[in-house]
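#struct-pred

JT: dropping the chains for the assembly here, can someone run the whole complex?
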Amino acid sequence: MAQAPAVFCVCFGGVCLMLGLFPPGLSHVAPNGPFRTVLDPSGKPVAIASPYGGSAFFAPFLQEYLLVSQETGSVVAMSASDFRYINHEDSLLAKIYPGLLHLNESISRRFSPAGNLEAMLQLRPGAIFAYSLSYAEPLRRLGLPVISFPIIRGKIPQSDYYRHALQYERVLGITGRADELWKRFQAGFARLKAELGDVTVRPRVMLALTKQPDNSFQVVGGGELLGDFLYLAGGRALDNAGRAFLNPEQVMMQNPDVILLLSLTELSPADFYSDPRFASLSAVRSRRVYKVPTGILDSQTFPNNIVESPLFCEWLAELIHPEVMPRDLRPVIRSTYAAVFGYTISNPELDRILSLNANAASMGYRRFEQ
Amino acid sequence: MSSKEKWIFDGWVGSVAFNLVLLTVLFTLLLVSLKIGRYPVSVGQIVHILASTPFLNAKRDGTNTVWIVLELIRLPRVLVVCLCGAALGMSGAAMQGTFRNPLVGPEITGVTAAASFGGALGILLGFSPLGTVASAFAWGMVGTAGTLLVSSLAPRSGTLGFILVGVILGALFSALVGLVESLADPATSLPNIVYWLLGGFGSADYRSVAIVAGAVSVAGPLLLLLSWRINLLSLSQTDAQSLGANVTALRWGVVALVTLLVAAQVSVSGGVGWVGFVIPHFARMIVGPEHSRLLPTSAGLGAVYLLTMDDLARTLSRQDIPISLLTASIGAPLFIVFFWRLQIRGWSRD
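RK: done, full complex below.
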């Protein structure tokens, strides 16, 4: 009697196997109406319908996109995690682009944009920006227009900012904005270089990205883009080549001159100053522990975009080389945001961006007050 | 079976009737599952598309959204869930019979933890989706091979030694998964790894169907054909040998087939716990412990159970719930009930 279920098993499994080996597929994925073809960063051709149907965002480059598009009408969906950083009353981005608050963030849960494929089909955006690998492939399989960004391991070049901006330009069908932003980026660093001159003393800077549950810190080394920014600001990263986890003892061994805390660490300088374990650190004794400004885009990791990266470096350079740097960050930020976003930033908003409250007890931070 | 104890569907006629009903339920549930989802699709559209589409190698225009939803999203998902449920149900029943232990599941060989490690490692190293699946499958096989190899060093320890080694290697691979997680980039690969480890069928496609179907169409029939021999393993080793069974070879053969099924399942959906443990107990209550009846019933019940759980995972909230959370929240209380019953009556396996 076992033969009957075995035969059924073979038949059912066989049918499924044939279906799996010769699946139904899409013979035609281009839109019905007029469209243009753009290449995504991995070189795959993607058909973009005209008129453009809006962008869905599941990649970490929303900042560049908004800087290029300069409006939110074309953003139709974003990941829940990105939305969380916009959806609060202090969000400058939401003030500049109030349309962002009306997006449907529930299309994607934090871990799996691919989990709501049907919602994406319902939405039918003009383009979906996503990481490559498991995020992009299920969407692409359905014939959706996916612009997939590769996950880069190792050092990301500065020119990636420009490449991303160009990518967005091509998708949106505009020209000139990427060049404008890239020139501003280069000019910012050129000005910084001229102001710093040839600094001879470079403080060792520990840039803490995250704090782990075991009290260790994920820190930036010299072998990556953020390490380059520390150098351009007149400092130098710790000795590790890339990102590394340092426990409190290793932090003490490294004994950095300056400690920078990203908002993701959920720590403030006061936490370091009050922790007896860190009392002997050079950065703590000289009270040079700083909360990194969040930037206008309320980035959870870093003011990490083509406009704000030079501002971050200028902020750091003013802190670690106050003797040579002019005291002009506030007007520079104000003029930058006016030029890039057309937004007049208020003094309380500037105070919040610069984390004045959190850094009140840190050395030299009063220079950023109005 | 004790002389006084009766199963709900006793005898061949009863079990065949039950399995036919089970097939009907499964088919109905399959159609219901094709209807459920975020994108509205009517029953008429389902019938029309399924009836009008050439089943193999159909090509469609990318602008036909209903067709895409049905044939490229829901159908492969439903098929993979059915196949995985059947594979886990059958594997659990075979393992419990082979090791004469009602509290083991297919993961006892270490295959689930090893395959999870393989998948997590693939994501960490940036493998393509197919490479990740291949890594999970390969490491699943490595895990069981390691369990077989290490336990063979102490042949006198018997099944207990095998189970113990499986638990130890499972713990080792779980630790390695933790290591991979700690090395993963919190912004990129870690969320992927965590989601994959939680288990789910959101990314199921026809490639997943082929992988699990391949395993089921090879290992499933072989397990079913071995079912009467697995009955012998339920006896003591001496009794089984006196009846002509090569106990050692048979046991390792069953383990290899179960490993093939579970590695295929884990590689396409991540770890899905409790199905392989709980379902065979239900099946045993219904058709009894005779494996030629128990294995197909476990497979059918496994498919129905997992498909129901996946439908709930898709519909309980606006976002997919990892299916392991659902199977565990139902499986754990059932485990307590079975454990209590075992304490009261002992396990009837003869």
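JT: nice. The mean pLDDT of chain B is 84. Chain B has 14 helices and one strand.
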